[in-house]
Amino acid sequence: MSGLIEIYNNKRGIRLENWLKNPKNTEKIKKMRLLYIVKANLDDKKSNKKKSIYKFGIAGIGGSNPASRLESYVIDYGHHAKENPAAGVMLYFLAGTKYNDKVDPTKSKVKLREKFIKSILKKEEMISENRGDERTFADLDYLKSLIAVKTEKAPAVEREAVRTVETRGYARRPDYLKDFLDTPYDRPMFA
User: Fold this and answer.
1) DSSP-derived 3-state class of residue 6
2) Domain parsing of the chain, residue ranges
3) Residue 70's CB: how many other CB atoms inside 10 A?
4) Residue 11: predicted pLDDT
5) What pTM value is reported for the model?
């Protein structure tokens, strides 16, 4: 699966706070770069009468504890509660790579995969409006399929424009080459 180690994958999902309570789970993701799919109950189609909105993202990119990023969702959206069905967050997918400080975070498999998913969803206009690039109303299976796409090299992501500086072609050539290239053909080249 695109070079990522699958840690959790379940269409029904699990309450994120319950998954994080298990020390085996948090131990598993230590020193990893993660790609995840979560959904706040607030964004569930049962709660908002529209399509469900899934959030995909990355954690542990700079060597930090990836569990803390996941815990921030529990802090933001609260714990599941019968009194408030809109509270809580569900985890649907979690995969990643072992953290390697020699790999630039922007070139990691996790970050490149996230960029790839964003580019596809933007082209297909499946990004939730006014909610950022990482929230989508795409079907969960489709979203997972974008993660699982096998590619020969890094995912096909549109490259940003590279700033170029215009210089004369011979600017960095040794003097003898400069003289040779500047010599018109109507006179002898070597006098």
Assistant:
1) strand
2) 5-148
3) 25
4) 93
5) 0.73
Instruction: Give how far Cα 138 sits from Cα of 11, 20, 26, 141, Å.
Output: 14, 26, 28, 8
**Residue 174 CB burial class (10 angstroms; 0-12, 13-18, ≥19):** exposed
* Residue 34 three-state SS: strand
> Taking Cα atoms as reference points, which of 20, 14, 11 lies closest to residue 74?
20
Per residue in 74-126, pLDDT tens?
Answer: 999 888 888 888 889 999 999 999 988 888 888 889 999 999 999 999 998 88
Task: Quote the distance between the C-alpha of residue 156 and its chain's center.
Answer: 13
Could you tell me how many residues make up the chain?
191
Which pLDDT value is given to residue 33? 92
169 vs 50: CA distance, rounded Å: 59
